[in-house]
Each structure stands twice: as C-alpha cells, then as structure tokens.
Specification:
This protein has 288 residues and is mostly beta strands. It has four helices and 25 strands. It is globular and about 55 Å long. 39% of the residues are buried.
Length: 288
C-alpha cells in the first residue's frame, strides 16, 4: 500500500515525479514529459540502499529490506533503478541488480532484529544469508525447528511470525535495538537512524508510519498541550527539528542519535538539556 501523498506540497521524497518522467497516477497533478505505470519488483538482498542520486556515494535516504516491493519507473542503464517503495512511498535510486521482476508471495516476516539463514536443517552449517526485522519471506514448508523459504533457505521458526501478526508494544521493539550503530538513512539492526527506529518499531506493531521525522511530526498522533508534558506516557514521541525520540516511561527515552552514534536509553530531562545546549529545542511531544 502506498502512503498518501500530499500533492499540494510536491514533496520529492514521496512524489515520483522528475520532470522528464512521473508515475501515471500523478497525471493531472504534476507536469512531466511522460507518465509510466511502473513495474513492481521485489528486493532480493538483505538490505539495499535507496539513494538521492544514481551513485554509490550519493546520500542514503532510506533502505529497502528483502521481500519488500518497489515500483520502478525508470532505469539508467548503468545499474540503477528509480522508483518508490510500496510500503511508505519513499522515492529514490536503488541498485537494479537486487530487484527481481518475478516476485514471491510472502506469508511470513522476520520478527527477530536479526537472524541467520542456513543452507540446510542444521545450525552447524555455515550460514548462507542473514535477514533483519521486517523482511518478508515466502515459507513453503517446515523441517523440524526450521521454516524453509521458496528458494531453499532454512530459517529458525522462532524468528518468524505470520505476515499479519503484530507486536503489542512498539516501545519494546525499539528497546531491542539498544546498542545498534547510528546510520543516517538506516532502518535495521545493522545501522539505524532516529526516524528509522520509530518507523520499524511502529510497523512491527501494526501501525503505518512515514519515514522521516518531519513526516512523523506532521502525521502521527496529537500534540500534547504544555500542561500535559509533565505526565509523559510510554509511547509518546518527543520531536526536535530533525530528531525524534520514544518515551519509555516518565523519566527515560530511547532513541538512535549521532551524539552517542548508537541507539541508547537515557534520562529525558538531561537529554533535552544537552540537545538544547547544542541549539535545538523540543518542537512538539505527540501521543499516538
């Protein structure tokens, strides 16, 4: 499902329109030399980058995970494809080599923050791949404690859940990422940023979530009134310009941040004071 696009803002992050080419569903709402339907592809690698430009050193905007669907509108003939993620609508350039035109029918997803895939039914075999939380897989059969994918990967069954099962507490998901390295544009246990942590955690709990912190500020929950801020609740979101943190309880929060270069749990008030000293005030606290 695509996220709703606020066409009036023409946010290029979630509007597949470049002037020379645009998605056909934008006909009449944007100007482009040509409009195309796009081709749905599946991500075949554990994690692939979505970059601002078709170059390996271009800014990492976000990432796509194995099994995720991407609608591709253009290819540059040099290994890059331009399109949008079907989950959150994010637009950018992806490495074409890891996009399959024939895709599977996923029925399970990875619920562990990271798991290993084996070539056979034994943990003593050298792992042949790794997968991260939120990856989609098509399981065709089982063998003891393993679930076997359509392409023969053996995954521990305890690391998978039905595609439509959701966690009860998104904050508990975020807490599991403590210690994960900070990565601008990242959204996995191999590297994650502040808004990626919010998105991955909420989606694991069944709540759709925009990708970037300003989108989350605009689209999630309701803003607390000043008198309500003295009684924070688990799951509240604290926003600064360009940053977001998740409240764990009345005194602590969890967030991925560049100050620690990791996902950490820390006391709320000292963190707010530190960030203020660096020049950024809290702009809102929102309750889902």
């Amino acid at each position: 499902m695509r996220s709703k696009i606020h066409i009036s803002s023409f946010d290029p992050r979630v509007t597949p329109s470049r002037g020379d080419i645009a998605a056909s569903y934008l006909i009449g709402r944007v100007q482009a030399d040509r409009f195309v339907e796009g081709e749905i592809c599946e991500v075949t690698e554990t994690i692939i980058p979505l970059r601002r430009a078709p170059a390996a050193d271009a800014e990492l905007m976000t990432q796509a995970l194995r099994g995720e669907r991407v609608t591709i509108y253009d290819r540059n003939g040099e290994g890059w494809a331009w399109g949008e993620l079907n989950t959150d609508g994010y637009v950018g350039w992806l490495p074409d080599a890891f996009l399959a035109r024939e895709y599977t029918a996923p029925n399970y997803k990875v619920t562990a923050i990271r798991t290993l895939a084996f070539p056979g039914p034994s943990i003593k075999l050298p792992p042949s791949a790794s997968l991260v939380m939120g990856s989609w897989v098509e399981i065709t059969r089982e063998d003891g404690s393993f679930a076997i994918t359509h392409d023969g990967l053996y995954l521990p069954k305890q690391h998978l859940v039905d595609l439509h099962d959701y966690e009860p507490d998104f904050v508990a998901i975020a807490e599991r990422f403590v210690g994960t390295p900070y990565l601008w544009g990242g959204k996995s246990s191999l590297g994650i940023d502040c808004s990626g942590l919010v998105q991955v955690s909420l989606e694991a709990a069944g709540t759709g979530c925009p990708r970037d912190s300003d989108m989350q500020l605009a689209g999630l929950g309701r803003a607390l009134e000043p008198h309500e801020r003295s009684s924070l609740q688990r799951g509240d979101l604290i926003f600064w310009k360009g940053h977001v943190a998740i409240v764990r309880d009345a005194t602590t929060m969890v967030h991925a941040n560049a100050y620690h270069m990791a996902t950490v749990i820390e006391p709320i008030e000292p963190a707010i004071a530190r960030i203020k000293q660096a020049g950024s005030e809290v702009v809102a606290i929102k309750r889902l």
